[in-house]
Amino acid sequence: MNSDEKNLLLNQIQIDVALISFLMVISVFFIGSVLPQFNSYDLSVKIPISFLIVSTFSFLFSTLILSNAGGQVLDGNSEKLKKYLMWGYSISEYMGVFLFVLSIPLVISIITSDLYLRIITFSSAILGLGFYQFMGFSLLEKHFTKSSKMISAFIILLGIGLFVSQVLAFHFTLVSSIFLILILIITCLGPMERFQ
Asked: What are the CA-CA distances from residue 147 to residues 71, 98, 117, 131, 141 (Å)?
C-alpha cells in the first residue's frame, strides 16, 4: 500500500469512527431520556431498553476496533487490517445500526399507546433502514457485496415481526430473544470470508 492509499484509508476510518461515535451519543441520549419515564420495569419495557443498551455498546466497541485499524494501516499489516475493518463494520451495522433503528419504534410503543404515532415511527424506521441498506449507502456495502442485501432484507423482516409481536402482545419475549440471537449470529458470521 503506498502513502496516498494509506492516507485515504486513514481518512475513511476517521470519518467512520466519527459517524459511529455520533450514533453512540444519540443512543446514550435516547436511553437517558427514556429511563426516567418509568418507575418500574416489566419485561415489555426492559427488552426495548436493553436493545438500546446493546446497540450503544456495539457502537462503542466497533469504534474501538475501527480506531485500532488505523495502526494496522500504518504498520502495513493488510491481513489484520481486513480483520479489524470487517469486525468493526459488522458490529457497527448489525448490532449497532440495525438494533438501534429497530429499537426506536419498540421504545415509542412502550411510551405511548397512540397507534398513529407507533405506526409512523415504525414506518419511518423500516423505510429509512431499507433505503439506507438497499440504495447502497451502508458501510458494509463495499465489503459484503452480495450477501448484505439478503441479510438486510432478512433482518428487516425480523424487525417487522418483532414490532407486530409487540403491538399484538403475541410472544414478544420469545420473538425478541430469537431476533437478538439471530442478529448476534449474523454479526459473528459477517466477517468470515465464505459469508461475504
From this structure: 28, 16, 33, 16, 9
Cell numbers that stand for 150 in this block: 439478503
Sole residue written with cell 463494520: 89
Structure-derived torsion over alpha carbons of residues 156, 161, 163, 166, reported in degrees to the nearest 10: -160
Whether the Cβ atoms of residue 195 and residue 147 lie closer than 8 Å to each other: yes
pTM: 0.87
Which set of grid coordinates corresponds to residue 40? Answer: 418500574
Q: DSSP code of 138? A: S
Cβ neighbors of 99 (< 8 A, separation 6 or more) are: 51, 52, 54, 55, 58, 183
Of the chain, the end-to-end C-alpha distance in Å amounts to 23
> Measured between alpha carbons, how far is 99 from 92 in angstroms, rounded to an integer?
10
- Domain around 65: 3-195
Q: How many domains does the chain have?
A: 1
CA dihedral in degrees (86, 91, 94, 100; nearest 10)?
-150
In DSSP notation, 46-71 reads HHHHHHHHHHHHHHHHHHHHHHHHHH
| H helices present in the chain, as ranges | 3-34, 43-75, 78-90, 99-111, 115-134, 147-167, 172-189
pLDDT in tens, 108-147: 998 888 989 999 999 999 999 999 888 878 877 766 666 6
**Residue 183 near residue 94, CB atoms below 8 Å:** yes
